[in-house]
């Protein structure tokens, strides 16, 4: 097991980076601009032994892009951790500022690094896919807002203002729908231009009920299945694995899926499961059989989601089009 001499915790904000460096009994704090030149200058000045240095940061989305771009060119071991993970492990704390947060991240890494998985740089095409998916989500949310607004104005049928607003909403909704089509076409073009992504898409969409949207999200969330390729871990990440919820003799609430899951992935999997049970085949037969046995429909649908995840991992790992003879782990 790797042992580090230096632990660096980085608290990231839009404009600045607060850095805490732990070396044996010594603690140092630094504050630099969140700019590539400043970051390069800082790490060049430190002159650390890169292979003996662990750098840990929270997953802050776009704000850590510049830092990761610089670190990817070096030999540091990097951990990018969900903020909730650090908060739960840190325990009950009082007070908060950027300097304290950087120190807590460094101490968290010092205690927990052996259980963490090092960050792997993504290919540029995966970053582009994530950006397009974010834009797609933003457009879908805009469409929902315009539809809700139009529905709320229906009660003012004879109002001039309501008629004007509905007309305006309709025009904006049409514009958003056109942009949504444009973004989805851009995603398809991006994937079709890359041999590896095109191959994974072909395998994944060969599963009944699995469409292109879920496929795109699976590829983006798992970093082309490099970060998660185990079906049990992926099912847990997507929130389709039930866990026990009991304590002593008084709490017996039965098994339930975890609240800490990617709810967007869970929603997409649910839509795919609903689609899969409409087609003739194994999943529909399984669903009907379990419902006839008296099982709760939502519980059976959750099992179908789990089966879809296992099929996805099987076709990607074995690089095969799905068929009933495929070995599922």
The number of helical runs is 12
User: What percentage of residues falls in helices of 4 or more residues?
Assistant: 40-55%
| Sheet/helix structural class | alpha/beta
- What is the terminal separation in angstroms? 28 Å
In terms of DSSP E residues, the strand content is 5-15%
| Major beta sheet, strand line-up | 3-2-1-4-5
Write the layout of secondary structure elements.
Blueprint: E1 6-12, E2 16-23, E3 26-33, H1 36-46, E4 53-58, H2 65-71, E5 77-81, H3 83-90, H4 98-112, H5 124-152, H6 160-192, H7 195-204, H8 212-221, H9 231-237, E6 242-243, E7 246-247, E8 251-252, E9 256-257, H10 263-276, H11 282-292, H12 297-318
Parallel strand pairs: 1-4, 4-5
Antiparallel strand pairs: 1-2, 2-3, 6-9, 7-8
Helix pairs in contact: 5-6, 5-8, 7-8, 8-10, 9-12, 10-12, 11-12
What can you tell me about this protein's structure?
With 329 residues, the chain is α/β, with parallel strands linked by helices. The chain has three domains: 6-115, 2-Layer Sandwich (Nucleotidyltransferase, domain 5), CATH 3.30.420; 124-193, Helix Hairpins (Orthogonal Bundle), CATH 1.10.287; 206-318, no CATH class. It is built from twelve helices and nine strands. The chain has a five-stranded mixed sheet with strand order 3-2-1-4-5. Strand 2 and strand 3 form a beta hairpin.
Explain briefly what this protein structure is.
By secondary structure, the protein is α/β, with parallel strands linked by helices.
